[in-house]
Amino acid sequence: MSEVVVGIDASTTACKVIAFDRAGRAQAEGRARYPLHRVGSDGFEQDPRDWWRALGEASRALAFTHEVAAVCVTHQRETAVLVGADGEAVAPAVVWMDKRCAADVEAFGGDRARIAAVTGKPVCTTPSAFKLRERLAAEPPAGVAGMREVHGYLVERLVGAAVTATASAGPTGLVDLVAGAWHDATIAAILGPAARGWSWPALHPPGARLGGLTQAAAEHLGLPEGTPVVAGAGDGQCAGLGAGIVAPGRAYLNLGTAVVSGVIATDYVHDAGFRTMLAPHPGHYVAETDLQGGTFTVTWLVQTLLGGDETRRADLEREAAKLPAGADGLLLVPYLAGVMNPYWDDTATGLLAGLRGAHGPAHLYRAVLEGIALEQRFHLASVVAATGVPLEEVVVMGGGSRSDLWCQLVADVLRVRVRRASTPDATALGAAMIGAVGAGWFPDVATAADAMGGDLGATFTAREAQASFFDRLFDEVYAGLYAAVAPRMQRLWRLRQERVVG
Fold this sequence. Notes:
Blueprint: E1 3-10, E2 14-20, E3 26-33, E4 37-39, E5 43-46, H1 48-60, E6 67-75, E7 80-83, E8 93-94, H2 102-107, H3 112-119, H4 128-138, E9 146-149, H5 150-159, E10 163-165, H6 166-169, E11 175-176, E12 181-182, H7 184-191, E13 202-204, E14 209-212, H8 215-221, E15 228-234, H9 235-242, E16 250-255, E17 259-265, E18 275-278, E19 285-291, H10 295-305, H11 310-321, E20 331-333, E21 351-353, H12 361-387, E22 393-397, H13 404-414, E23 417-420, H14 426-438, H15 445-452, E24 459-460, H16 464-496
Parallel strand pairs: 1-6, 6-15, 10-13, 16-22, 22-23
Antiparallel strand pairs: 1-2, 2-3, 4-5, 5-8, 7-9, 11-12, 14-15, 16-17, 17-19, 18-19, 20-21, 23-24
Helix pairs in contact: 9-14, 10-12, 11-12, 12-13, 12-16, 13-16, 14-15
């Protein structure tokens, strides 16, 4: 009987469980969905018990015929839940996209510079810590004894102990990234002094064995009791690993609901231009950027604004490809979901400049794709400046990577070679690579990535005429546009809150 490692991907809306062999080939797959609950205009919650239910359903659907060497969890990041002494939720989990803490973050009087330097995360609505801080103040549940991120919550049920991965805990904004330990001063500053006495999961580096499946967990997953569980990492880090990004000089770019890119750094760096994560391989870091309005913005245009579907999107794609670079003078700053790096402004909104009566839907569609590519140039310039390592290649993945037009625009705007990831399951594959190291198949993740990664897909290179145009568009217009109007946009946001009707 051949061996497999199992990558468990607990994303925002579903749990996917995939068994991979030593060559990175998927041998079996199961999936189960769970609901995402919207609370008001800015709140998003989930029941953590749904994560556990879906994990069991997805795993049992595999009907394993292979020997499982190890399982490893990757997950939606920044989502976290307050738990009691037994590790079970005492309130709904607050999901990564929740922004109810915006006012609290704006008023936060702690040492912002120190927190950013220690955790690699500027003070904003994104880290779990500020979401939980707001929940504790607004709706303090009884019996709070700790918090768990998604990895920690699931692994505690798998092995029966409060343990998690450093690379999974880092996005909470409560971990000293250099020490690889919970940071007491930051915990006290954000969650209050009493939180120091909570039950905090023991931290272990990715690839470490955390224990074996308990009898109850084994029955729930349909796997043998004692199957090794290996410490994983967040979905962004694992997606990069699954795409073969294990050393400086290359970046992953996930053109998903949010556009997330990351570059490996061998030394700890932090900067307002990005957030820093722990890499899936110990001793390394990820300088990561995040634009929360990625394919979300495309969907907004096609479905919400135009009332179309996938057929309409395909038509827009063809029409937009015939338009000149710059969408005939139409430019979008894609902050429809606020902006993280480099401004860290949760009140930011999208900007559409250059609009004229001659512009139609295809112009707007192209402006969306170009605007996101221009924003990515902004992001990666900060990363390259901080790390001092030039960027040679970008590997794209996610739903947006299926667009040849978008991939080509990214190559033109960034002036870098763009290659499409060969697997749609890079995140689960990255978790499996970490699991393979923990199972003893490979000595490190770089070796695992080389053995299990396979070839990349189509390649896109910059076209000189288009690249030269985008150089000017970026330098002369885009780079300073939002900063020039930000005070007025922030005032507009505050006026919106007055809600004068009629």
